[in-house]
Amino acid sequence: MRQTLHRSGNLATKRLAAIDQLLTAGIKLGPAKKHAAINRVLELVPDWTRGDCWRRIRELRKTMQPPADDRKPSKKQQSGNAATARSTSKPWTPADDDRLLNLAGYEPVPKIAQRLGRSVRAVRFRLGALGMSATVTDGWSLRALQKLLRVGPARLRYLIGHGLLRVRNAHVTAASLAAFCEKNGETWEPFILATVTTALREDDAFSWEKVADLLGSDLTSVQRLIADGELKLVDMFVTDRAFEEFCKKRSDEISIALIDPATAKWLISEYGVAPSVTNGMNVPRALKHALVVRVCKCGRKIAGNPYFRHIKTCRSMTASSTQSAARLSTNQSSESMQQ
To answer: Residue 247 burial by CB count (10 A; 0-12/13-18/19+): exposed, middle or buried?
Structure first.
C-alpha cells in the first residue's frame, strides 16, 4: 500500500513538473505561446481547468528570477551622469516585484506605474528584466463575454456605459465623436459645434466628463450615448481582473438561469459570482429562447434566436441549400423526361 501511494505521489510530482515546464516556456516566449501552452496542458491533463492554469502561471511568475546578465551594470550605466542618476533610483525589492507580477498582464503599464509610484520606463525595464510581457492579454473580448454570459451586444454596452463593467480604455474615440457631431451638429448651438471641432483637432480620445463638457450636457447623457452605441470607446477589451470584480460586485446583473450549469458552477468557483443569485431565478418568457442551443452545420453552437440570423449568412448552410436545390431540380428534370 505504501509503495502504491509513493508511486502515485511521484506521478503527481512528475505531472506537475511537466505542466510547469510547458507553462514556463509559454511565459518566456510571449502571450501567444502562453495561451498555446495552456491549451496543451488542458489537452494533456483533462482534470485541470483554465483557472488552474492561470493560478499556476501566477505562482511561477513569483518564482522566476531575472537573468544574471541583467543584474550586471552595463558600460552606459557605469559612465557619467547616467550612472549617478540610476544609482539614486528607487531599488526594486522582492515585495515590489511581487506586486508587479500580480499586475502584469492585467493592467496597462501606465496604470501599473501609477499604482507602484514609478515611471512607465522603469516598469517596462523591470518587466523585461523579469522576462515578462507588458501587453495585457489575459481577459475577455466582447464577443467572448456575449457567448459566456449569453447576452447581446446592447446589454454589454449598457453595463459598460453605466460603469458596471470596466474596459481597458474607456476614453471616447475622436472618430465616434466626430461622427456624432456630423449627425446631430445641425441642431446644436454654433459655439458648441465650434468647441467640439476645435477639441477634435487637438486630441484623439476624450474622457466621459470631457465629452459632457464639450456637448454642454451631463455625464448621464454621455453614458446613455455609449450604451446606445452612438459613442465608441478606445479599447473595449475587459481584463480578467475587471471581469472578476464585476462578477463579485454585480452578480445580480448576470442571468445565471440562462447559462449552462457547468459554466455557472465555474463562474461561482473561479470568479466569485454569488451563489445566492442561482436560487429561485425564473427565466422571463421573452428570454426563454436563449435556453435552446442549436448546432449549425459549420460546427458553431449558438444559443437562442441569433441562430436564425447566423444561418442566413453561414457558408455551410448556403452551400447545403444550393446542393439541395440542384438535387431537387435534377430529380424534377428526370421525372419530366420519364413522363
So the answer is: buried
CA 88 to chain centroid, in Å, comes to: 38
**How do strand 233-235 and strand 169-173 relate by DSSP bridges?**
antiparallel
CB 251 within 8 A of CB 274: yes
* Cell digits of residue 69: 546578465
SS3 state of residue 161: helix
CA geometry: angle at 178 spanning 175 and 184, to 5°?
Answer: 140
Distance CA 299, CA 310 (A): 12
Residue 181 near residue 193, CB atoms below 8 Å: yes
Cα–Cα nearest to 100, from 88, 87, 109: 109
Domain ranges of the chain: 2-61, 92-137, 138-153+236-276, 169-233, 283-317
C-alpha to C-alpha distance for 267 and 51, rounded to whole angstroms:
10
What is the number of other CB atoms lying within 10 angstroms of the CB of residue 225? 21
Quick one: DSSP state of residue 93?
Answer: P
What is the C-alpha radius of gyration for the chain, rounded to an integer number of angstroms?
27
- 3 state SS of 238: strand
CA distance 174 to 179: 9
SS3 of residue 300 by DSSP: coil
Tens place of pLDDT per residue across the chain (339 aa):
434 434 455 667 778 888 888 888 887 777 777 778 888 888 888 888 887 888 888 788 777 655 444 445 555 455 445 444 444 568 888 888 878 877 776 677 888 888 888 999 998 888 877 766 667 666 788 888 888 888 888 999 999 999 999 998 899 999 999 999 999 888 888 888 899 989 999 888 999 999 999 999 999 999 999 999 999 999 888 888 888 899 999 988 888 777 777 788 888 888 888 876 544 445 555 555 666 677 787 777 666 667 677 777 786 666 666 666 556 566 655 655 555
The pLDDT tens digits for 79-121 are 445 444 444 568 888 888 878 877 776 677 888 888 888 999 9
Tell me if 104 sits within 8 A of 206, measured CB to CB.
no
Q: How far apart are CA 151 and CA 245, in angstroms?
A: 18
